[in-house]
Write a structure and sequence with these properties.
The chain has 78 residues and is an alpha+beta fold. It has 4 helices and 3 strands. It has a 3-stranded antiparallel β-sheet.
């Protein structure tokens, strides 16, 4: 299903939109949402702060909402 959505609508990129107050809020979001290990959550935060995370619109909107609730400034790019 995910691949079909990406093929039909294209990927969306989630990136940092400003300075992060600290890593802990973003780490907590990725640990809660993806059940990732601490090291994998750190990798995801690194991707977010560099080239950004890529996924479907609904995946990235969900992450955007959760990250913003924790004070992490992010925006979506098409």
């Amino acid at each position: 299903m995910r691949e079909a959505l990406l093929a039909a609508h294209g990927p969306v990129r989630l990136r940092l939109a400003g300075p992060v107050p600290g890593l802990v809020p973003a780490l907590k979001v990725f640990r809660e949402v993806t059940a990732a290990s601490l090291s994998r959550a750190r990798e995801l935060v690194g991707e977010l702060s560099n080239e950004g995370l890529v996924g479907t619109l609904s995946e990235m909107e969900f992450l955007k909402a959760r990250l913003r609730m924790r004070g992490v400034p992010v925006d979506l790019e098409r």
